[in-house]
Specification:
The protein is an alpha+beta fold. It has two domains: 113 residues, no CATH class; 146 residues, Immunoglobulin-like, CATH 2.60.40. Helix 4 packs antiparallel against helix 5. The N terminus is likely disordered.
Length: 268
Amino acid sequence: MLIGRLRENKYPDRCLFPGAPVMNISLRQVVICVAALLVATVTVVFISQNASRLGSESLLVRALFLSLAIVAALVAVYPFNPIFAGKPGAYSLAVCAPAIIPGFIYYLLLLPAQAGLGVTAEQLQSQLITDSSSNGIIEVGFSYPIYTPTITVSNRELFTKQVNVFLRMTDGNNESALFRAVRSEIPGSSLSVEATVQGMLSESAEYLLIPLEIPPLRSISGKVVFIISNLEDGSTFTEALAKAHQAQFELRNPVHGELLYEFPLIRI
């Protein structure tokens, strides 16, 4: 019987079935396997969680990050591949090298062909928080209404794009009021209205604080926040919108301020 043959086998390092490869995994191989698996996992998590940061790097660097994850994963499973047992050089040439080629083709050839120019955006919803209302996060304790439109911004370029969002309302006399969305970082230690609202909203993923960071060929959606603080003649924000000849959002470069894109506001 087979059990008896197993017990009588005097050479445990030899296979009982001729022609079948023997897999003897040493402690050193186990350590390398675990380390490579850890590198692959960390790299994949870094790529998935840092799309904006990685999108600021060159296409070659992005291809190298992906290649690192692929090679590390293949190294982790190498000890379990009986075909290349004891042949790390052949494994590198026959398996690892071909495996990273698609990544370089995607980043250096296919991705540039998909890219366009600039950013686009549109408004999805309108919401106004007044001094008599609350959205569960902002408890309005001052007289300024807070306008929180939901927008989506798409980046058609190859690299991460940063944009500031503004709201412009123009009346019949061609006079305009410009409002900037609440910033993620406010200079100084000011106890301004903006700083108060920013502190309330910074922990909520529902809201987008400027500058917005959009990864390459990706879109982000969320609520931007405008504090309507300089309306004249005592009119409410809704009344000012009704009187406005034109109301629109503007995406601008955070550094130089040039206009990147504009799109209409959906009336409340």
